[in-house]
Design brief:
heterodimer; A: 284 residues; mainly alpha; MetI-like fold; 2 domains; 13 helices; B: 357 residues; alpha+beta; 5-stranded antiparallel β-sheet; 20 strands; 34% strand; ATP binding (chain B); ATP-binding (chain B); ABC transporter ATP-binding protein (chain B); ABC-type transporter activity (chain B)
Chain lengths: 284, 357
């Protein structure tokens, strides 16, 4: 089908080398802070503060052992997984269906409505966090996973909706019409035809949503305090605890612990991620 | 029974009415072609029959049942789209069996019906392929297979050959005709190509601007076009038109004073008229209308002559050989039954009609 075709780019060998060099340069700039974080997490406190910084030192797993055996850190890691997965799935379900409606259903003002939902993302999260906290307290929902999942949906659903809308718009309308003549309802056509075709797009969108939820700090900070707290809150706690000076080893070790699952996850799903991104690119 | 009745069907988008009361009675087993320029409402009408567009006014009946508010899936119709709309994630077998699976037909029966349809269309070797692994003609055939597996009351075709190249289009055209002769299922076929309509249909409905200009068997439209629009639209190469004033019942008085005696008069008409003659109905003779040759194009079996009568360009098609140097004056004769007299009206833009794809 046309929307799956790609044109291979033609380029010379010299052009290729320049591209590779540029790619490496950009990667170094982006990855150096991560590298430095990982490096620091293996250092003893004395090595961290040496000036100039040392690249060669005797590594230690001391900080990792300390923090990975702490129940609160493990609990927070579990919370982060639950919240990221829950809000990823929930926002995909709601956002994809909303995006489909925006792409297909002819209602007056649908475009305006869609735009309004998108504009809601322009509201600074801090302006929402406090009212959200008040509402959650009234409902007795503070410090619960579901609270964070719902809170994250406020920015994930518009995101998913707009990404998926442009994806669905690029699919020919006749696919669903044909399915509807063949015996499907509108919902049947969506789930049996559109969803399977859109799987790469849906999955890559969900992965991005999960990563956004994984790293979210502000809402987690305001809406949770003990049971449902996530990793970013834990990092913020360590960073804010400066009574004995900044605990860089702990900060970088917990930071690394937070990043590693995302990297593993991204590697596992990279086939989908790349396919989804490329599809989006060729479809405009 | 696969009858379709369209009774005064109207369609409006907001305040804009695009179909102004269409009525057609289609018999069981009939092949009807809806033809007209783009924007004439033919596809909209087909989509209303399919249930993909709401009906603003009037009624549509399929098998004697009013279907105005019946969902597409419950109308017992099958449709072939211009872009085929094959499900890209399913192989040919699953594409063809999809509608039957939706209807919970037992698996062995699905397999049987799919392979029967595949045999008819020569798709047996392709059953395990995905649509993207097929050529345009094969996709077209799968789309038809998906329709015939259903054994529906009515087949709807929406410009099914427009995406194919010219050669394949002719081949698929005769395959569709053969299929209809074999299955005898009521068929409604939308096209902008009058040749397709003429060659396929038992009855052609010519539409223009949301109304029916004329409907009838193909040759009736060809022989007795009811309007200038139909006369210009049906037939290839198109009919010639000469405009002037009708005088003394049978004299066409043209702008530069040329007088052409028509073999047939129309005493009822007086003033401005347009006279139409098909290129193949002219005969070169010793006497008759004088015409100045501009170009002679022999193709072997026939010869096409481009000439001018009183400055108006005409085309003449004669069987066999003919040669004359440019600027020669020849004389043309027409049999009375081949002269068409119309009220003057703006001619449809044929160039536009031909390259809509």
């Amino acid at each position: 089908m046309a929307f799956m075709s790609r044109t291979p780019a033609r380029q010379g060998v010299a052009g290729n080398r320049v591209r590779i060099a540029a790619g490496i340069a950009v990667s170094v700039i982006f990855l150096f802070p991560v590298f430095w974080m990982v490096l620091t997490s293996f250092k003893h406190q004395v090595d961290i503060f040496t000036n100039p910084p040392k690249f060669l030192f005797s590594p230690t797993l001391e900080t990792y052992v300390e923090y990975m055996t702490r129940a609160d850190i493990n609990k927070r890691l579990a919370n982060t997984i639950i919240v990221a997965f829950g809000s990823g799935v929930f926002s995909l379900l709601v956002g994809a269906m909303a995006g489909y409606a925006l792409a297909r259903v002819r209602i007056k003002g649908a475009a305006t409505f869609g735009l309004l939902i998108l504009l809601s993302r322009g509201v600074p999260p801090i302006a929402l966090a406090v009212p959200m906290f008040l509402v959650a307290r009234k409902l007795g929902l503070t410090d619960k996973h579901i609270t964070l999942i719902l809170a994250y949906s406020t920015f994930l659903v518009p995101y998913v909706m707009w990404l998926m809308r442009s994806f669905f718009v690029s699919l020919p309308r006749e696919l669903e019409e044909s399915a509807m003549i063949d015996g499907c309802s509108r919902y049947g056509a969506f789930f049996k035809i559109i969803v399977p075709i859109s799987l790469p797009g849906l999955i890559s969108t969900m992965i991005f949503s999960m990563i956004l939820a994984w790293e979210e700090l502000l809402f987690a900070l305001v809406l949770t305090n003990r049971h449902a707290t996530t990793m970013p809150v834990a990092i913020a706690g360590i960073a804010g605890d400066t009574i004995n000076g900044a605990n860089w080893a702990a900060l970088t070790a917990v930071g690394t612990i937070t990043v590693v699952p995302v990297v593993i996850f991204a590697l596992l799903v990279q086939k989908w991620l790349i396919k989804g991104l490329a599809d989006g690119a060729t479809k405009g | 029974m696969g009858t379709v009745q369209i009774r005064n069907a109207r369609k409006a988008y907001g305040a804009v009415e695009v179909l102004h009361g269409i009525s057609i009675d289609i018999e069981d087993g009939e092949f009807v072609a809806l033809v007209g320029p783009s924007g004439c409402g033919k596809s909209t009408l087909l989509r209303m029959i399919a249930g993909l567009e709401d009906i603003t006014g009037g009624d549509i009946l399929i098998a004697d049942r009013v279907v105005n508010n019946v969902a597409p899936k419950d109308r017992d119709i099958a449709m072939v789209f211009q872009n085929y709309a094959l499900y890209p994630h399913m192989n040919v077998r699953d594409n063809m069996g999809f509608a039957l699976r939706q209807r919970r037909v037992p698996k062995p029966e699905i397999a049987e019906r799919v392979s029967a349809a595949a045999r008819i269309l020569g798709l047996e070797a392709l059953l395990d392929r995905k649509p993207r692994q097929l050529s345009g003609g094969q996709r077209q055939r799968v789309a038809m297979g998906r329709a015939i597996v259903r054994d529906p009351n009515v087949f709807l075709f929406d410009e099914p050959l427009s995406n194919l190249d010219a050669k394949l289009r002719v081949q698929m055209r005769s395959e569709i005709k053969e299929l209809h002769q074999r299955l005898n299922t009521t068929t409604i076929y939308v096209t902008h190509d009058q040749i397709e309509a003429m060659t396929l249909a038992d009855r052609v409905v010519v539409m223009n601007g949301g109304v029916i200009e004329q409907m009838g068997p193909p040759l009736e439209l060809y022989d007795r076009p009811a309007s200038l629009f139909v006369a210009a639209f049906i037939g290839s190469p198109p009919m010639n038109f000469l405009s002037g004033r009708l005088a003394e019942g049978d004299i066409l008085l043209m702008a530069d004073g040329t007088r052409l005696r028509l073999p047939v008069g129309d005493p009822k008409r007086r003033s401005e008229v347009t006279v139409g003659v098909r290129p193949e109905h002219f005969a070169v003779a010793e006497t008759g209308w004088p015409a100045v040759v501009s170009v002679v194009e022999p193709t072997g079996s026939e010869t096409q002559i481009t000439a001018r009568i009183a400055g108006q360009t005409i085309r003449v098609l004669v069987r066999g050989r003919f040669s004359a140097p440019p600027e020669t004056v020849i004389h043309l004769q027409v049999a009375p039954e081949h002269v068409h007299i119309f009220d003057p009206a703006p001619l449809p833009d044929l160039a536009e009609l031909e390259d809509v794809a």
